[in-house]
Design brief:
- Pfam families: YceI.
- The chain is mainly β.
- The protein is built from 1 helix and 9 strands.
- It has one domain: Lipocalin.
- The chain has an 8-stranded antiparallel beta barrel with strand order 2-3-4-5-6-7-8-9.
- The protein is elongated and about 50 Å long.
């Protein structure tokens, strides 16, 4: 008789990073968001699940300084974008994992601004580090400010619907 041994490994949030990148006509902005908590679940050495909480109040740009940084960071935290006063956290819950030997395809539910979207993305795990690059469609989370898919008249002021999250987790 064999028994399944599931083990949760806590993510070291201070050693992990979430880097975001948003795109607009003629440019882009980058920044960081802190993880509040997280864990990955393994069956032996095989990833089987996990969940994460992101502290949206730490959302900030890294490509600007001074007044421009303050304006962008404040706008991103406002109701036009992530509404961090009402929604101070976002979550990601892994629902299924396929793959082996450190190369996985992950399906998960991500909740931002109280709206949940099913997504999938590749995740690589080597030693005690996991990396993943996620593409998120902000309009699925009621973030529609200057969305080109909703307002045809924006032209050169549009902010594209998808943004990237490049995640490195240490556990």
């Amino acid at each position: 008789m064999s028994y399944t041994t599931l083990k949760d490994k806590t993510v070291k949030v201070e050693e992990s990073s979430v880097i975001w990148k948003g795109y607009k006509v003629g440019g882009e902005h980058t920044g960081t968001i802190d993880l509040k908590s997280g864990s990955l679940t393994f069956n032996g050495k095989t990833l089987t699940g996990g969940n994460f909480t992101i502290d949206m109040t730490t959302l900030g740009s890294t490509d600007l300084d001074g007044e421009y940084k303050g304006k962008l960071d404040g706008h991103l935290k406002s109701d036009d974008f992530f509404g961090v006063e009402e929604f101070p956290t976002a979550t990601l819950d892994i629902t299924s994992v396929t793959g082996k030997d450190g190369n996985y395809n992950v399906k998960a539910n991500i909740t931002i601004k109280g709206k949940t979207e099913a997504i999938s993305f590749p995740m690589l795990i080597k030693d005690n580090t996991a990396t993943a690059n996620l593409k998120i469609d902000r309009t699925k989370h009621n973030i529609t400010y200057k969305s080109p898919s909703l307002l045809e008249t924006l032209k050169d002021k549009a902010i594209y619907d998808e943004f990237d999250l490049n995640v490195t987790l240490t556990f």
